[in-house]
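Lecture 7 notes. Example A: sequence first, then its structure tokens.
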Amino acid sequence: MWRKLILFFLLCGYGPAYAASYEQAQAALMQGEFDQAYKQAIELSSTEGLVLGAEALNAKLLLGLSKKPSKTAKAAMALADKVLQQDSTNAEAQLQYAIAYGFYGRQVSPFKAWRKKIPLKILAEIDKARITGPMDARTFALLGAWHLSVVQRAGRKNAKKLYGANEEDGLFYFDQARQADPTDMIILANYTLMRYVLHPKIEETMIKENLQMIITATPQNAVEGQLQSQLQPILSALNESKGAVSMAKDFITR
């Protein structure tokens, strides 16, 4: 999820003040100061700042740190949309928009989702992200997560009938994402928990092995570090056979 664009901005001739401001916002994001990163990023009043601001909000949503996730998701969508209104081919803005829309979709009821066709609208944004960033592992992961999330919420029959979602495609696209970037901790975590929730008895060995792999890896930023801390209780619950399924479900639906 994290892109190191600072060198690009420097090479493109931005002044020292701009670069320092972006560096500060980027550093705050990497250090887990998401609100600070958001404020500093949007103060830049630039395309890159708006995208970084959306990324900071999405990081909060991923980690369950937003008290009002629907509002936060909409705010992230709004920032990304400002960029897309000016440049519909901006791959990172489209990706952050699709991520935020996915988080928003988690907050609506199945009835509202069906009535307003929210899953299909989210899918349309993911498809746009796959066009603007065809080789980005995160776009494959988003599509995989969409299929598995719809199946988990709507049930296999309705998922297929109403939205064309199915478990097989979800696993396929997650596999594509993992092949594209085997080191992405966030992709592996979501893949693992979504797969486990669908088949808790069958996938118990898989989730233990994958969570152990994630938790013992070296985090590259505060998001990964906090993710590891949040996954540790799930692994402990698995080892003690106490509430792991509900904890995993809470993670993938928040």
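Example B, a different protein, same format:
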Amino acid sequence: MPAYRISKLEMKALEYIANMPEIDDSLLADALKIKESEVKKLRTKLSKILQWVVVPNYGKLGWELMFVVYSTMPPRKIPPADALEGCTHAYTSPEYFFATGFAQNYAELLRLYEKLCIDLKMQKDHLHLLIFSHELTQLLRFFDYQEVLGKIAGNWETGVRDAAREEGKALDPITRKILFEIVHHPAADVETLSALVGIEKSTVRRKRSFLKKQEYLRPAVSVNLKALGYAGFAFYHLTAGECAGKGWPLDATGTPPFFAVADRTNAFLLVPYTRLDEIFQMSVALTTSSKRMALAVSIVNYGYFQFGECRKLRENDYISVLKRSRNFMFGDKVESAIGKPERRSSKINPGNRR
């Protein structure tokens, strides 16, 4: 049974907010056909199961790699959250470990991976590392709960979207500082951001609009899946053989994944479940679907994290990744000098949706 009984009106509001995180009370009231005063009460109730976040477009900001690490055995040691450098999300359970994050280059990634092995007291043979470079990544759904909410409400349309392939350019220091504070304080208004950065509100307003329009960041909501009645989430590591590149049967799970990333040879996804038997059923569905589509796809590993047993080591920690970059280390004074723009590739883009 769900830990929180959600009404049809609340479910409909959740759908609107997930699709338009910055929707104001007036528009939401019109969409739901209720009074604006009722919307405020509704938001208060939904705050129990929602967290507003701002997801940076790391690819466009200069990060070259996304990584996934997982293990089908528990770590021998649980490190503190601040030790999981480069990770935006990390979970552990009595049987499994999973983390994902971003690295600016291969050298940094190898350092992060070796440190993680030491901190977890695990051998490299037991801690699987999947590397997804911008040039090779085909698909991405990054902790995106829109389809999950749509499935509950009966409005789910299948299809894992291609990652965007636009390029970015280097931002000036003031714009970077504003982006940093927006990610650090997702609910901050223009006046608060102005005080944090120390510049005029008009400049903050203009640059914040630029960052959103150019898709350097994406306002989003993180949903408490347990409150929606899910028992946990399963992970699946798929690999492709000679038919690599023809596609992945990622929608075969029935319940849409809220995380999915793939290149020509590997795919990894996270899917919520309500019953333990669904985990095996989804693995069978993935295998059967790949055969029907004539794809040489097989499941390398799969497992699950059950709410109540798993431990969140990191979740939606986007600011810690930014802090690792010199471009987001600020002194007392933010210089406004702008260097020569640098073209960036951005195929892996958790901060952008089509």
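Note on Example B: The longest strand covers residues 297-306. The chain has two domains: 8-48, 52-354.
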